[in-house]
Automatic annotation (TrEMBL):
Keywords: ATP-binding, Magnesium, Nucleotide-binding. It comes from Brachypodium distachyon. It comes from the Eukaryota. Residues 200-221, 385-411 are annotated as: Disordered. This is AAA+ ATPase domain-containing protein. The keyword Nucleus does not apply.
């Protein structure tokens, strides 16, 4: 096809117009569409097509197309140069300079991203004080952002192992996904969009911490996280978003840390790692009761302001009672795992003085669970009285007295032996004065033996009865141990559980006898049948015994006088 033919076919082009830019040029074997038709079609075309289409309208349109082509060519050249420059920079420029360039680019990007709106930026440096102090907010933000990063969406990511200091001075470690230098992500909070950018600059300006490796003068890069947002949201950022991040990070760190259980020795706590596997999922108990406990814990955690408002200490007390082997200790472990709180297992037989107890309780950090097991065995009737007794002669040398002397130790005549009322008064006093977000759990096998002071309303907020293994509890155990939800023996087991009392500990033991679910369930069924036989036998013996006794003491007019007569002689 010649240029002339082409011009003819399309029509309306003046000499010098760019034929090649005409979109209809080679695709148009039919007569050209009318102007109106083309104008209507143009309304639906993207900008590039419109520009090109404009060239069909006359000389002015042609110039637009020329400009468009030139712009495209220029953009392509710039992109090529940029790629070339980038490659050369990577080869030739030192890392420090490249980091500085990246920082400038990130700042420019951040400003351009603002879309012309007034943007504010909060810079959170990893170190301050000339590089010698760690900024906790940086660590918190990094921990929080690790949950926001989608590793599939980011081409470059950094993996870091982070150390957290525990309240007891020990450390725990966790692995985090972090943004690389120049990386950014957005987070939405209360409907506001916050943008986070990771920026690294060379530490050679003296602001960074001196690199410890190889003892060289090289300084570690200065790491910062930049939080940018629309200026109108400054209050939301500082007053709500930043505190939210701190608390979210704390929760995440708690989730990752190894739990500990502390035991009292003298006046101090000694902790070891706590790996009790019990969770609310594995706990075999009445489902409604389980839900009630979990809901109660959740409500407690959310109610800081509420407790403040009503003027009550932010603490919660649980009394767990029931026969041995019904899961009281397991429930305590499940609570600790659920809340990620450390456990403080208080052995009161090791505590002789109220002042020692006071010191131990004050030494417990927030977000912890105090457990006193078998509370019914801890105090005899005598010690329940609030007796003010002189301090034993050897008490000053006892293991209770390590560490600096407390106020109470300076006034020996006021020393009190440990009493239940001392414990209760002090717990109430302690919770209301120091520390918060604590849980106290008492356990007992015999609720009826407890001092009424312990059962007084308001002392223990929730009384939880851990009973014998019911049908639902058994199903949890079957699922835990053998991953079975249904089995041919289930109906028989259900009937047996309704007839005999067996603890979850006993049922667990039977289920553990074999790894084969069929065998283990058979073993349990036999155990339950045997137990039912024995229970029936015992019951019938008791019935006979009772009947015999009844015969001897019965006031029945028929035999009564006879007995009386017999006993007379
Ligand atoms: N409700 C339960 N759910 C799951 N496992 C249980 C339950 N109760 C008991 N077990 C099993 O029995 C073992 C002993 O239970 P646990 O020590 O929790 O009972 P306890 O009521 O605290 O007993 P004690 O009163 O003697 O201290 C647990 O380690 C667990 O394997």
């Amino acid at each position: 096809m010649s240029a002339d033919t082409c011009r003819r076919t399309i029509g309306g082009f003046s000499r010098g117009d760019s034929v090649g830019a005409n979109p209809w040029q080679y695709m148009q074997p039919f007569p050209a569409p009318s102007r109106n038709l083309r104008r209507r079609a143009m309304d639906h075309l993207p900008l590039t097509a419109k520009l090109a289409g404009a060239s069909m309208e006359g000389g002015a349109g042609g110039r637009v197309v020329d400009t468009y082509k030139k712009t495209l060519a220029t953009a392509a050249s710039v992109a090529a140069y940029a790629m070339l420059a980038r490659g050369m920079a990577r080869e030739l420029l030192p890392e420090e300079l490249r980091a500085a360039v990246r920082w400038v680019a990130a700042s420019v990007r951040a400003r351009l991203g603002a879309g012309g709106k007034d943007r504010h930026t909060i810079v959170i440096r990893r170190h301050f004080d000339g590089g010698y102090s760690e900024n906790q907010l940086f660590e918190a933000a990094r921990t929080y952002l690790a949950t926001k990063i989608d590793p599939r969406a980011m081409r470059r990511l950094c993996l870091a192992r982070s150390r957290h200091k525990e309240p007891d001075g020990s450390s725990s470690w966790s692995t985090l996904l972090c943004m690389e230098d120049g990386g950014s992500t957005t987070d939405s909070f209360e409907g506001v969009e916050f943008k986070w950018t990771s920026v690294e600059t060379s530490g050679d300006d003296g602001g960074g911490k001196k690199g410890k490796s190889h003892g060289s003068s090289h300084r570690a890069p200065r790491e910062t996280l930049e939080l940018s947002f629309d200026a109108q949201h400054t209050d939301a950022a500082l007053e709500r978003y930043v505190p939210f991040i701190m608390s979210a990070a704390e929760q995440l760190q708690r989730r990752d840390r190894a739990l500990k259980i502390f035991m009292n020795e003298g006046r101090a706590w000694h902790g070891i790692n706590h790996h009790h596997p019990a969770t609310f999922d594995t706990l075999a108990m009445d489902p409604a009761l389980k839900t009630a406990v979990v809901d109660d814990l959740d409500r407690f955690l959310k109610r800081k302001e509420y407790y403040q408002r009503i003027g009550k200490a932010w603490k919660r007390g649980y009394l767990l009672y029931g026969p041995p082997g019904t899961g009281k200790s397991s429930l305590v472990a499940a609570m600790a795992n659920y809340l990620r709180f450390n456990l403080y297992d208080l052995d009161l037989s090791e505590v002789r003085l109220n002042s020692t107890l006071q010191r131990l309780l004050i030494g417990m950090p927030n977000k912890s669970i105090l457990v006193i097991e078998d509370i019914d065995c801890c105090f005899d009737a005598k010690s329940r009285e609030d007796s003010k007794m002189p301090m034993p002669a050897d008490a000053g040398n006892s293991s209770d007295d390590d560490g600096p002397p407390s106020k109470a130790c300076q006034a020996p005549q006021q020393q009190q032996n440990l009493t239940l009322s001392g414990l209760l008064n002090f717990i109430d006093g302690l919770w209301s004065t120091s520390g918060e977000e604590r849980i106290i759990v008492f356990t007992t096998n015999y609720k009826d033996r407890l001092d009424p002071a312990l059962l007084r309303p308001g002392r223990m907020d929730m009384h939880v009865y851990m009973g014998h293994c019911g049908w639902e509890a058994f199903r949890t155990l079957a699922r835990n141990y053998h991953l079975v939800d249904d089995h041919a023996l289930f109906p028989e087991i259900q009937g047996l559980l309704a007839a005999v009392e067996v603890t979850p500990a006993e049922a667990s033991e039977m289920l553990l006898r074999s790894e084969d679910a069929d065998i283990a369930l058979r073993v349990l069924t036999d155990f339950l049948q045997d137990k039912r036989r024995r229970t029936r036998k015992e019951a019938s013996e008791i019935n006979i015994d009772t009947a015999e006794k009844a015969m001897w003491v019965s006031p029945s007019p028929l035999i009564g006088p006879c007995l009386s007569e017999e006993t007379k002689y």
